[in-house]
Amino acid sequence: MATRQDVEKGNDTITKPLIGQKKEVQIQSNNGGLWVVLLSTLVAVCGSFEFGSCVGYSAPAEYGIMDDLGISYSEYSFFGSILTIGAMIGAITSGQIADFIGRKGAMGMSSMICIAGWFTVYLSFGSFSLYSGRFLLGYGIGVLSYVVPVFIAEITPKNLRGALATANQLFIVTGLFIAYVIGAIVTWRILALTGIVPCMVLLVGLFFIPESPRWLAKVGNEKEFKLSLQKLRGADADISEEVAEIQEYIVTHELLPKVTIMDLLGKQNIRSVVVGVGLMVFQQFGGINGIVFYAGQIFVSAGVPPNVGGILYACLQVIVTAFGGSLIDRLGRRPLLIVSAYGMLLGCLLTGTSFLLKAHQLATNLVPILAVTGILVYIGFYSVGLGAIPWVIMSEIFPLHIKGTAGSLVTLVNWCGSWAVSYTFNFLMNWSSHGTFFGYAFVCAAAVVFIVMLVPETKGRTLEEIQASMN
């Protein structure tokens, strides 16, 4: 075993793969354990559903809030954007919170904050309380956006990790879809109350699921660590090899000094950070928020009512994300990411071409068809890969001793990118509508190169194997 002196002198004991020199660890699980894993995942993704509900709330509630409270369009725009500001702050603190009070504790705390946010919105009679409630919701989902995929990755067997981690994105888009559907038939205050439901389910469900065994091992709670892992693998499963692997990994990394942001740039960690941050940059700067923002107007131009159009593309996201989740553990992460980026490139080119034709008054009958096709192609391919898989890989590649700091950074980059694309989209469209989408197409092309050159395949490997090979 490496000593602290080895680490301080820079000896390479730690840098050698911990797992690569041993036989592959066989993770045993029986049906009882599988049901506990599925139940735990289902409870956790209530947080993902809440994420989607919060993001999807502003579109169907827009006209009701503006009419009832008499606020201006610019005030409502701030109401929509303050969610992202809260989420950025939540992302900054998410890793530290999850490391300090545990994965379950972080999910429970976030749920209570979201409940407070929804009640504040529901009781609002002015802009200040609206902003306060929306900010609380943003903070809550900023933490949830990190802790949910991490929790799922840490409890699942390697052969199911990809599919179950994809459930995070599936329930985000499902929450978005349900918010659009319910928002079309109820008032904005009632819609706010519906957002409390997934939080309550999550809070109650946390009492019936085990804590992440890897977090328990990290904080030195060995008895609870083994009990949690046994529940997740089944009462009769032999967990000795998995316990030994996790404990060796934890002990080795305990010798490393406390991690700071600058340590993430060291040679041991830089590849993981580049992959995690890079995937989030391409996910956001490929233009997803701009595409979704403009989708309503595109559908209107094609003669489709905006609320119907919103429900249509949200439904498409649910279907395609579920389809991608069924493939991720069979085809792998890299192939789906590459196909996704190519499809998004095609969608941007189609939409950009429609705007170019419109600007030059050419083939005017084809313009709305190309635009709608481009939007649907883009959203479909985004949902099958770049929508979900960056969160899956983020939850897999960071060692436990840097996961809190690195995960917070990656989540923050995601939310900053979301804000930047949303904020700049109108300015870019005023500059050149077709140029905007061709610019997004260039980002998608760069994403293909990035994925091919740098992103590892993590299918079928334990977290410890993945992290040892990268660091």
TrEMBL record:
Its main location: membrane. It is a multi-pass membrane protein. It comes from the Eukaryota. The chain crosses the membrane at residues 32-58, 78-101, 113-131, 137-155, 162-182, 188-209, 272-296, 308-328, 335-357, 369-393, 405-425, 437-455. CDD domains: MFS_GLUT6_8_Class3_like. Keywords: Membrane, Sugar transport, Transmembrane, Transmembrane helix, Transport. InterPro entries: MFS_dom (IPR020846), MFS_ERD6/Tret1-like (IPR044775), MFS_sugar_transport-like (IPR005828), MFS_trans_sf (IPR036259), MFS_Trehalose_Transporter (IPR050549), Sugar/inositol_transpt (IPR003663), Sugar_transporter_CS (IPR005829). It is found in: Membrane. Residues 40-459 form the Major facilitator superfamily (MFS) profile domain. Belongs to the major facilitator superfamily. Sugar transporter (TC 2.A.1.1) family. This is Major facilitator superfamily (MFS) profile domain-containing protein. It comes from Vitis vinifera (Grape).
